[in-house]
Amino acid sequence: MIFMDLDGVLAEFCEAFSRVIQTFDPTMPLITTATQPDWGTWGGEMTDERLNYGWETVKVTKNFWERAPSLASPEVFARIAAAHKEIPILFVTSRIPTAGNSVQRQSINWLEARGILDPLVIVAGGDARGRSGKTDKASIAKIWSPYFTIEDGPQNALDYAAAGFEVALLDWPYTKDTKAPGIHRCNLTEALEMAGVPLL
Questions:
Q1: pLDDT, tens digit, for every residue of 109-163?
Q2: CATH fold of 2-12+67-195
Q3: Taking the domains of the chain in order of start, what are their residue ranges?
Q4: What angle in degrees, to the nearest 10, is found between the helix axes of 188-195 and 74-83?
Q5: CB-based contact 127:159 (threshold 8 Å)
Q6: What is the CB-side half-sphere exposure of residue 2 using CA atoms within 13 A?
Q7: 111-to-44, 51, 101, 181 alpha-carbon distances in Å
Q8: What would the pLDDT profile of 29-73 be if each residue is shown by its tens digit?
Q9: Model pTM?
Q10: How far apart are CA 63 and CA 38, in angstroms?
Protein backbone atom coordinates (compact mmCIF):
# COMPACT_ATOMS: atom_id res chain seq x y z
CA MET A 1 0.00 0.00 0.00
CA ILE A 2 1.07 3.56 -0.81
CA PHE A 3 -0.06 6.65 1.09
CA MET A 4 -0.39 9.63 -1.25
CA ASP A 5 -1.14 13.21 -0.25
CA LEU A 6 -3.41 15.40 -2.39
CA ASP A 7 -2.53 19.08 -2.00
CA GLY A 8 1.00 19.86 -3.10
CA VAL A 9 1.21 16.46 -4.80
CA LEU A 10 -1.77 16.15 -7.11
CA ALA A 11 -3.72 19.36 -6.42
CA GLU A 12 -2.59 22.99 -6.64
CA PHE A 13 -3.69 24.32 -3.25
CA CYS A 14 -1.35 27.31 -2.97
CA GLU A 15 -2.67 29.00 -6.10
CA ALA A 16 -6.30 28.39 -5.11
CA PHE A 17 -5.71 29.72 -1.58
CA SER A 18 -3.85 32.78 -2.90
CA ARG A 19 -6.82 33.61 -5.12
CA VAL A 20 -9.20 33.36 -2.17
CA ILE A 21 -7.08 35.84 -0.21
CA GLN A 22 -6.84 38.19 -3.20
CA THR A 23 -10.61 38.76 -2.99
CA PHE A 24 -9.96 40.35 0.42
CA ASP A 25 -6.51 41.80 -0.18
CA PRO A 26 -5.60 42.44 -3.85
CA THR A 27 -1.97 43.03 -2.84
CA MET A 28 -1.59 39.33 -2.00
CA PRO A 29 0.76 37.90 -4.67
CA LEU A 30 -0.27 34.79 -6.56
CA ILE A 31 1.83 32.05 -4.98
CA THR A 32 1.89 28.55 -6.44
CA THR A 33 3.25 25.30 -5.07
CA ALA A 34 6.35 25.75 -7.23
CA THR A 35 6.99 29.29 -5.93
CA GLN A 36 6.04 28.97 -2.25
CA PRO A 37 9.33 29.66 -0.45
CA ASP A 38 8.48 28.27 2.99
CA TRP A 39 5.70 26.36 4.72
CA GLY A 40 4.68 28.67 7.53
CA THR A 41 4.84 32.24 6.23
CA TRP A 42 4.89 31.86 2.43
CA GLY A 43 7.94 34.10 2.24
CA GLY A 44 6.48 36.56 4.74
CA GLU A 45 3.33 37.09 2.66
CA MET A 46 0.99 34.95 4.79
CA THR A 47 0.10 37.30 7.63
CA ASP A 48 -2.27 36.13 10.35
CA GLU A 49 -4.97 38.38 8.90
CA ARG A 50 -4.63 36.88 5.43
CA LEU A 51 -4.43 33.34 6.78
CA ASN A 52 -7.53 33.75 8.94
CA TYR A 53 -9.52 35.33 6.11
CA GLY A 54 -8.46 32.57 3.74
CA TRP A 55 -9.49 29.71 6.00
CA GLU A 56 -12.74 31.34 7.12
CA THR A 57 -13.65 31.87 3.46
CA VAL A 58 -12.72 28.31 2.52
CA LYS A 59 -14.89 26.95 5.34
CA VAL A 60 -18.02 28.65 3.97
CA THR A 61 -17.29 28.00 0.29
CA LYS A 62 -19.45 25.17 -1.00
CA ASN A 63 -17.35 22.23 -2.18
CA PHE A 64 -14.14 24.27 -2.25
CA TRP A 65 -11.94 21.17 -2.59
CA GLU A 66 -13.74 20.01 -5.72
CA ARG A 67 -12.62 23.22 -7.45
CA ALA A 68 -8.90 22.89 -6.76
CA PRO A 69 -6.77 23.08 -9.91
CA SER A 70 -4.66 20.10 -10.89
CA LEU A 71 -0.97 20.17 -10.10
CA ALA A 72 -0.02 16.82 -11.62
CA SER A 73 -0.10 16.19 -15.35
CA PRO A 74 -2.85 14.21 -17.14
CA GLU A 75 -0.27 11.47 -17.74
CA VAL A 76 0.35 11.14 -14.00
CA PHE A 77 -3.37 10.93 -13.27
CA ALA A 78 -3.75 8.23 -15.94
CA ARG A 79 -0.86 6.27 -14.46
CA ILE A 80 -2.33 6.42 -10.97
CA ALA A 81 -5.81 5.57 -12.28
CA ALA A 82 -4.49 2.40 -13.91
CA ALA A 83 -2.72 1.19 -10.77
CA HIS A 84 -4.45 2.57 -7.68
CA LYS A 85 -6.60 -0.47 -6.92
CA GLU A 86 -3.95 -3.09 -7.58
CA ILE A 87 -1.25 -1.56 -5.40
CA PRO A 88 -3.45 -0.10 -3.67
CA ILE A 89 -3.01 3.64 -3.26
CA LEU A 90 -4.68 5.32 -0.29
CA PHE A 91 -5.12 9.08 -0.67
CA VAL A 92 -4.56 10.71 2.72
CA THR A 93 -5.42 14.38 3.20
CA SER A 94 -5.79 16.81 6.10
CA ARG A 95 -8.15 19.18 4.28
CA ILE A 96 -10.54 21.10 6.54
CA PRO A 97 -14.33 20.78 6.26
CA THR A 98 -16.21 23.27 4.07
CA ALA A 99 -19.81 23.93 3.18
CA GLY A 100 -21.31 21.30 0.92
CA ASN A 101 -20.09 17.72 0.74
CA SER A 102 -17.76 16.14 3.28
CA VAL A 103 -14.02 16.51 2.70
CA GLN A 104 -13.86 12.83 1.84
CA ARG A 105 -16.65 13.09 -0.76
CA GLN A 106 -15.18 16.27 -2.27
CA SER A 107 -11.79 14.58 -2.55
CA ILE A 108 -13.32 11.47 -4.11
CA ASN A 109 -15.23 13.61 -6.61
CA TRP A 110 -12.05 15.56 -7.43
CA LEU A 111 -10.07 12.38 -8.07
CA GLU A 112 -12.86 10.77 -10.09
CA ALA A 113 -13.10 13.88 -12.28
CA ARG A 114 -9.48 13.12 -13.19
CA GLY A 115 -10.13 9.48 -14.04
CA ILE A 116 -9.28 7.82 -10.71
CA LEU A 117 -12.46 5.85 -10.10
CA ASP A 118 -13.61 4.70 -6.65
CA PRO A 119 -10.51 6.06 -4.88
CA LEU A 120 -9.78 5.22 -1.25
CA VAL A 121 -9.62 8.52 0.68
CA ILE A 122 -8.85 9.06 4.37
CA VAL A 123 -9.11 12.44 6.07
CA ALA A 124 -6.50 12.97 8.79
CA GLY A 125 -6.87 15.47 11.58
CA GLY A 126 -4.32 18.22 11.99
CA ASP A 127 -3.44 21.89 12.37
CA ALA A 128 -6.51 23.57 10.89
CA ARG A 129 -4.60 26.78 10.16
CA GLY A 130 -1.67 25.14 8.44
CA ARG A 131 1.14 27.01 10.21
CA SER A 132 2.84 23.96 11.70
CA GLY A 133 1.74 21.38 9.16
CA LYS A 134 1.24 18.89 11.99
CA THR A 135 -1.31 16.15 11.19
CA ASP A 136 -2.29 12.63 12.25
CA LYS A 137 -0.98 11.01 9.05
CA ALA A 138 1.93 9.15 10.63
CA SER A 139 -0.34 7.74 13.32
CA ILE A 140 -2.72 6.50 10.64
CA ALA A 141 0.21 4.98 8.76
CA LYS A 142 1.09 2.90 11.83
CA ILE A 143 -2.32 1.25 11.48
CA TRP A 144 -2.27 0.71 7.70
CA SER A 145 1.49 0.04 7.29
CA PRO A 146 2.09 1.47 3.81
CA TYR A 147 5.37 0.44 2.23
CA PHE A 148 5.82 3.92 0.76
CA THR A 149 4.45 7.46 1.27
CA ILE A 150 4.32 10.41 -1.13
CA GLU A 151 4.01 13.78 0.59
CA ASP A 152 4.76 17.49 0.26
CA GLY A 153 4.44 18.59 3.88
CA PRO A 154 7.79 18.90 5.65
CA GLN A 155 6.42 18.02 9.09
CA ASN A 156 4.44 15.08 7.74
CA ALA A 157 7.55 13.77 6.01
CA LEU A 158 9.55 14.02 9.24
CA ASP A 159 6.77 12.29 11.17
CA TYR A 160 6.51 9.47 8.62
CA ALA A 161 10.28 8.99 8.62
CA ALA A 162 10.44 9.01 12.43
CA ALA A 163 7.81 6.26 12.44
CA GLY A 164 9.97 4.17 10.11
CA PHE A 165 8.27 4.79 6.76
CA GLU A 166 9.99 5.57 3.46
CA VAL A 167 8.95 8.99 2.17
CA ALA A 168 9.10 10.63 -1.22
CA LEU A 169 9.02 14.33 -0.34
CA LEU A 170 8.25 16.42 -3.38
CA ASP A 171 11.00 18.80 -4.37
CA TRP A 172 9.40 22.20 -3.81
CA PRO A 173 11.13 25.30 -2.43
CA TYR A 174 9.44 24.86 0.96
CA THR A 175 10.81 21.32 1.37
CA LYS A 176 14.46 22.16 0.67
CA ASP A 177 15.60 22.04 4.30
CA THR A 178 13.69 18.88 5.26
CA LYS A 179 16.17 16.07 5.73
CA ALA A 180 16.11 12.82 7.68
CA PRO A 181 16.91 9.15 7.05
CA GLY A 182 14.14 7.69 4.93
CA ILE A 183 13.21 10.97 3.21
CA HIS A 184 13.89 11.19 -0.54
CA ARG A 185 13.35 14.61 -2.15
CA CYS A 186 12.25 14.12 -5.74
CA ASN A 187 9.64 15.03 -8.33
CA LEU A 188 6.34 13.16 -8.64
CA THR A 189 7.45 11.01 -11.57
CA GLU A 190 10.48 9.87 -9.58
CA ALA A 191 8.26 9.24 -6.55
CA LEU A 192 5.95 7.00 -8.57
CA GLU A 193 8.97 5.07 -9.86
CA MET A 194 10.32 4.57 -6.34
CA ALA A 195 6.88 3.44 -5.21
CA GLY A 196 6.65 0.89 -8.01
CA VAL A 197 3.68 2.44 -9.81
CA PRO A 198 3.89 0.96 -13.33
CA LEU A 199 4.29 3.07 -16.43
CA LEU A 200 1.43 2.96 -18.91
A1: 999 999 999 999 999 987 655 556 678 899 999 999 999 999 999 999 999 999 9
A2: Rossmann fold (3.40.50)
A3: 2-12+67-195
A4: 20
A5: no
A6: 23
A7: 32, 26, 14, 31
A8: 999 999 999 998 999 999 999 999 999 999 999 999 999 999 999
A9: 0.95
A10: 27
